[in-house]
Specification:
By secondary structure, the chain is mainly alpha-helical. The chain has two domains: 87 residues, no CATH class; 108 residues, N-(1-d-carboxylethyl)-l-norvaline Dehydrogenase, domain 2, CATH 1.10.1040. It has nine helices and three strands; from the N terminus they run H-H-E-E-H-E-H-H-H-H-H-H. A three-stranded mixed sheet has the order 1-2-3, with helices on both faces. Helix 3 links the parallel strand 2 and strand 3. Helix 4 crosses helix 7. The longest helix has 23 residues.
Length: 208
Amino acid sequence: MMILKLYLKLLLNLVGANGMLEPWFQSKGLGDADQVLAYFAVSKLGEPPTDGKTDTNPEGLTAAYGKWASAVAARLQNGGLSCKVLDKEPFQKQMLEKLIWICAFMLVGARHPGATVGAVEKEYRSEVSKLIAELAAAAAAEKSLVFEDAMEDRLCAYSRAVAHFPTAVKEFKWRNGWFYSLSEKAIAQGKPDPCPLHTAWLKELKIV
């Protein structure tokens, strides 16, 4: 159990930004680095982790990619947590989905002070739905990929699983900042902003 706790601490440190790490990996020559997409959370020190299982994905959402992915999955599973092993493209899609989740739900929540993730899913569904669709389209175009159907349903299901989590726009560089950089790039090239709603709400909150 002590080894598992240390392992979880290491994993949480590695994925602590909970966002778009690809540019950083590439800048360090680590484009093919093994990665873990952690869909588990620890409410406070000493408490057991909550697994990222939802009503749309009862098998769990945590995933690993790379040479040591199977070893990582085995260790997590031995500790009672789910983890699937994915090839690079499916892993990238799931990573982007989680990025979209945290960027969309945190930004909508920030527009409604005191709103939890669950409140955003329940009370501001129309707002977050529009933002999910916008960010998904931008990410798909940037990465030349096609997401699986029903993304909104999956992301809302995860929000119900962690409904008590507070909302706030944090770690901008690693999260919403990636989408804002796509907007800046497009505008600099004389093209339409691919994320106009996202940009408008960032400005509304004086984040940019």
